[in-house]
What does this fold into?
Amino acid sequence: MRSLSSLGSLALTTKLNAQSGMHSASYRNTTLIACLSIGLLLTTAGCTSVRIKLGRRIDLTQTPVASIDAKLPKGPGIAPGQKSPLVVTVTEPDGKVLQSEGAGSGKVMWRDLQVKLV
It folds into this structure.
């Protein structure tokens, strides 16, 4: 038969072991979430060359263009000091239509476009 003090230390040891197991599982979960977050960040907000290689953006300097069209999707009216989105549509020689990023939700980067008002 064990004494009361040895049973108390056995219970305390078991409790400490259970807590350290929970700590390591929590640490693993935190590490996994951190790694997944960093991976997601790199794939969605990565540099331009990564976006191009993943197919999320198109380098217009390397793409043949048949025509370019720019439109204001909310209509031609705009008041002084107001903003209006601009969508640029690029058509390739094979008929494939590409749209600008932003309001156009496309793959053509604004850095490849130069817009001048006339």
